[in-house]
Amino acid sequence: MFDASKGLTIMVPTLNDEEGDFLRLFMIYDQVMKTTSSQVMFQFTYCNFLRPNAVAFLGGTIRSLQRKGIGVFVNWASVSSAVMATLRQNTFCSKLGYGSSASLGHAIPYREDPKEDANSILDYLTQNWIGKGWVRVSELLRDAIAGKVWEIYANSFEHSQSDIGVFSCGQHFKRKNELILSVVDFGVGIPYNVRQYLSADSRAASLTAESCLRWACISGNTTATANGIARGLGLHLLKELVRVNNGKLELYSHDGYVKIDSQGEQFKTLPFYFKGTILNITLLCDEKYYRLTSELG
Fold first, then answer.
1. What's the rounded Cα separation, in Å, for the pair 9 and 252?
2. Which of 106, 107, 22 is nearest to 93 (CA)?
3. To bridge 212 with a disulfide, which of 156, 179, 194, 280 should be the other Cys (CB 3.0-4.6 Å)?
């Protein structure tokens, strides 16, 4: 039972996926991870909408607290019927032990991966996200895209040093014709790994997070190897897809941010900080049929 006199209550606001929404998520995480309370209650009275990034991030935040031995409570009665429908469809409720899941509908399930499971994650990406038919892609392109996103998961497992793994969630927004996937890890972040990798150069320690993300987004640059083969962030194919699709790819790590879309790449330093890494991919569900260049002939 939650004891309000001894516990911390967090009021979860309406959360989309604009810069200010990520700031609110990072502030919540910072507040709860610094608490000296033995209990935390999440209250949704003023929350009218949650995008997939918020679902994945809140799930990881809850697991982070539990990992520290803090008792976590969710006031499910405070969740509006509209938000509850979303959280049941994407299985967030059932994963947190509340009720059963509804039919998935247009949701891409909330997923927790404490450990690396390549086959399961690839199945999730192909069957629930890129291969669902919301964006028309060839089988070869579907598998290639899923493989590149898997590389981002793999980097998280290999380098993030997270105790709780990787969290994912997505949604097909029919009215906006958008397909969104969010992947979050609560590890040490891309800038940390880049600085470590380049540490032979005395200047590496002073690299900004923005500079580290610039380095990581250059094709061929990598801090990871798989079976002796260099493995980058896997962004080249994803960059090309969002460019021709008029979608966007966003990365948040430490106080660095990159957005990749049809206009190119935009890097900047943010006025807020998150230790881990968030990947947010938005694709447009148009009538075009996408395939690999090698399939054209």
1. 26
2. 107
3. 194
Amino acid occupying residue 231: R
Angle at 30 between CA 29 and CA 34, to 5 degrees: 115
Q: Which two tokens stand for residue 53?
A: 């990034």
Q: What tokens were used for 122?
A: 């690839």
pTM of the model: 0.93
User: d(Cα 53, Cα 245) in Å, to the nearest integer?
Assistant: 21
The amino acid at residue 269 is T
Looking at the chain, list the stretches that DSSP marks H as alpha helix, in order from N- to C-terminal side.
19-33, 52-67, 81-89, 92-95, 118-124, 139-159, 190-197, 209-216, 235-245
Here the tokens at position 88 are 């049941």
One DSSP character per residue, 231-274 reads E---HHHHHHHHHHHT-EEEEEEEEEEEEEETTEEEEEEEEEEE
At 254, list the tokens: 């430490």
Q: What is the pLDDT of residues 177-195, one digit of tens each?
A: 999 999 999 989 989 988 9
pLDDT tens-digit map of 99-146: 877 767 899 999 999 998 999 999 999 999 999 999 999 999 999 999
Classify burial at 230, counting beta carbons within 10 Å of its beta carbon; exposed 0-12, middle 13-18, buried 19 or more. Answer: exposed
List beta partners, residue 267: 258
Return the amino acid letter for 168. S
- Cα torsion 85, 90, 95, 96: sign: negative
C-alpha distances in Å from residue 131, one per residue of 69, 144, 179, 285? 39, 11, 11, 12
